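Any chance you could type out some protein's one-letter sequence along with its backbone structure tokens so I can compare the two?
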Amino acid sequence: MTSTAPCRVLVIEGGSSGSASSALLAREPGRLLVNSVRGLAGAVEYLRHHRPDCALLDVGLTESPVEAAVRALREYLPCAPLIALAGGADEGAAIAAVRAGADDCLDRERLDARDLCRAIELALARGAARSHLMGLALRDLLTGLANRTQFRDALERAVARAGRSSQVLALLHLDLDDFAAINNAHGHFVGDALLKAVAARLAAQVRAGDTLARVGGDEFALILENVSAHEAAAAVGRKLLASLRVPVIVENEALSVGCSVGIAFHPADGESVDDLIRSADLAMHAAKHRGGGRIGSFSGLLLDPAPEVLRPRGLPAGQLPPVLYPAESESRPALV
């Protein structure tokens, strides 16, 4: 391998032949870290918690057709190399694996350790090039976060996984409070610098496996998978709000900016991607119309009052601005 760090390889075994592949790879302990699992179900469970650099799939899996197995793995490994292993006579399975998204298909009966390692190395090189090109297309140029396109793709995958596993998925929609006033008063250069600083602070508060994206001018979104409870998502929202309480220094001037956060949960607040986005957006606007600097929940399970200092000017204590509801026939977001 060209990298100094060992390559993490997941071997997904179908039959006894999968064990032979694991044994070949185990001969390279300084170059490879090999983990093996049995069947597609074992692979999915592993990939929920780990991200290997490369995966080998024995197309002799019995519980799932090769096309379905490759597509399921690609949901967790959108860029990492996926190499299929098939018997020399099983040409149909090899073609099906590549058509479904595998990077290559090798004849397991003719492999030796050197050939297999070389195939992994080439696949990693191709994967790195593909990741670089995808990164250029799917990253926000200003902040370096995921852009709207990558966010949408990540949310579609997360909703599909949550639907199969019956685990709670949370979507947080964040909109900066009064950013337009700062941008107009100080200019776009200062506004851009402020957005970059905000993005860095938000990114420091999220887990490595979560997706934080800039989806608009001063709008951000965060996808939280495998949420243990609604309160856990609220706790993340509070961390995000707290990260913005310290002013940002731009051009020797301290700029204060807060945000409003809307939270929606799958499937309670929306089973489809569009419904979930709409619910989080409505919850965010509900929080903003209550003065900003707070968390709104579409499901009405969170109670996060805004700090008194963020109350709109001119409103006496205990009085809140009018709230904009959707049409009477639609669900109303909770104002918290």
Notes: The first helix runs from residue 16 to 25. Residues 82 and 335 are 46 Å apart (CA to CA). The mean pLDDT is 81. The chain has two domains: 7-135, 148-310.
